[in-house]
Amino acid sequence: MSLPISSQDFLEAFGNVWHHQTASDDSCAAVAQAYRGNKSWTHFVLAEDVGLLAKVAKRLQQRLGLEHLGHYREWGRIDAMYAGGQDLLTMDKPGPADGYPDKIYAVIENENGGDVEQEMYKLILLRAPLKVLMFCDWAEDEREANPDKRIWLPQKLRHFEKMLAAFQSFWPEHEGTEYLFLVAARRSGIARHQPPMWRSWIFLGGTMTEHPLGI
User: Fold this and answer.
1) Contact between residue 192 and residue 139 where contact means Cβ atoms under 8 Å apart
2) Which pLDDT tens digit goes with each residue over 136-187?
3) pLDDT of 85 above 80
């Protein structure tokens, strides 16, 4: 089944927006500064209209021709949601106006700390063809110096797979559902004051696969 927004669509839009966000020395410095604080990074990622995810939504809307695609921030305790279609309360109100849209293209959670399993649990409970979890790993020099930090991310990804397997054994979700994990990490050495680097993994059909982003 062809998804309205696939994980590859999301990664293309994300990479495009990220390149624009870091296209100059000044913009790179601003992004790097935002990454140093939880509140500033949350604002950078989630801000209404001007945040990273809002810009990704606009890119997807233009590229995929999703006329009514809207970016909903903190809707029903979800960090972000891409949705559209008609409003299910009025049944005659096209999205992305406020209300209850009938087409949920993607649900997104962003976690700055270490408790990413809680955000993963929230995503598992939701119904959407694409579920995105954004979180942070340790910097490369920190991973090299500390064995626990080195295995932190692989352990998290394996834990996600176990969580999904447990839920699937009870009540399987649609076989085409994609989970996209976007992982940021501070750069090391002389590049430590640059914007973070990103890696991504896609979970589909019981298989976790890394997808290089190049950003």
Assistant:
1) yes
2) 999 989 999 999 999 999 999 999 999 999 999 999 999 999 999 999 998 8
3) yes
